[in-house]
Design brief:
Elements (H helix, E strand, L loop, with lengths): L2 H14 L1 H28 L10 H24 L4 H18 L1 H16 L7 E4 L2 E8 L3 E5 L5 E5 H6 L3 E2 L5 E11 L4 H14 L10 E8 L2 E11 L3 H19 L4 H5 L2 E4 L6 H6 L1
Antiparallel strand pairs: 1-2, 1-5, 2-3, 3-4, 6-8, 6-9, 7-8
Length: 283
């Protein structure tokens, strides 16, 4: 076979299969756009359907997109004369090779399905897990998107999130506020307790059951460490925490009898062992 004859092989093939090639290209292009439109429609319209969990939308939209793309490629190969049995055999062998090479990717898909099925997290909830924290924006096929309270974009693979302990700050209907108060031991502890309880009971956001309480947590040198505990509805957590912290400091400085040095020694702040979501997201 001469070089000229060898070069004429693709030319001859293109001449004989020009229409099939154009049809195959058209199928792939149409499949690409159809996949995008379908994924977008599922993502936007599925959450509007009655009784359908909005957390399913991102995962289903991605699965539909890849499914349509694979179908378009297989159809295009059929138009070019590649037998379906050959395509299925190649896909089977390729699938096995890909499965071995991309074990972590497949683990992310399985973890995403489990996150959707068992629902330890949901879109719109503030969570902490795998060393990250933020509001869940999307639970995708391969990873979960979060947005921190400072507006940062966070992406974590589903497998890492699934394998870690997840703290959901939004799931329970109410949360407990812990405010640490440190006063010099020369200050009247009983009066300090009455002031703190009055502030908590006066705040309409504080729930009456369980009732707010103040206890002495520890003694440190010349300081008495107290803690105010109050329960609030979860959406009111941050605003109430900041409000009680500020009001406690102002009231203690104004109403307690003591020297300027004693009042300067009064410190009030959120309990670091029970941090607020914003504190976690910003860390």
């Amino acid at each position: 076979m001469t070089i000229t004859q060898f070069l004429m092989i693709p030319v001859t093939w293109l001449t004989l299969n020009a229409l099939s090639l154009l049809a195959a290209i058209a199928v792939v292009v149409a499949g690409w756009y159809l996949a995008r439109l379908t994924a977008r429609a599922i993502k936007q319209l599925l959450p509007l359907a009655y009784g359908v969990d909005k957390n399913f939308a991102p995962l289903l939209s991605q699965a539909a997109r890849y499914g349509i793309l694979i179908f378009a490629v297989v159809t295009a190969l059929n138009l070019l004369g590649v037998a379906s049995t050959s395509i299925l055999a190649v896909l089977g062998a390729a699938g096995l090779a890909v499965a071995l090479a991309l074990q972590n990717t497949l683990a992310n898909i399985a973890a995403g399905i489990m996150l959707i099925w068992l629902r330890p997290i949901a879109i719109g909830e503030f969570i902490q897990g795998d060393g990250v924290a933020g509001v869940v924006v999307e639970i995708g096929l391969f990873g979960t998107r979060l947005r921190s309270s400072s507006g940062l974009y966070i992406f974590t693979p589903n497998q890492k999130l699934w394998a870690s302990a997840i703290t959901n700050h939004s799931r329970e209907p109410r949360r407990r506020i812990d405010v640490n108060v440190s006063v010099p031991d020369t200050i009247d502890i009983a009066k300090s307790r009455k002031i703190l309880l009055r502030i908590a009971n006066a705040d309409k956001r504080v729930l009456p059951d369980p009732i707010p309480n103040v206890h002495v947590d520890s003694f440190s040198g010349a300081a008495v460490n107290m803690q105010l505990r109050a329960w609030v509805a979860t959406p009111d957590y941050l605003e109430t925490l900041y409000g009680l912290t500020e009001q406690a400091k102002i009231a203690l400085n104004r109403e307690l009898v003591g020297s300027k040095e004693d009042k300067a020694g009064i410190t009030v702040g959120p309990n670091p062992d029970n941090p607020s979501p914003e504190t976690q997201a910003g860390s």
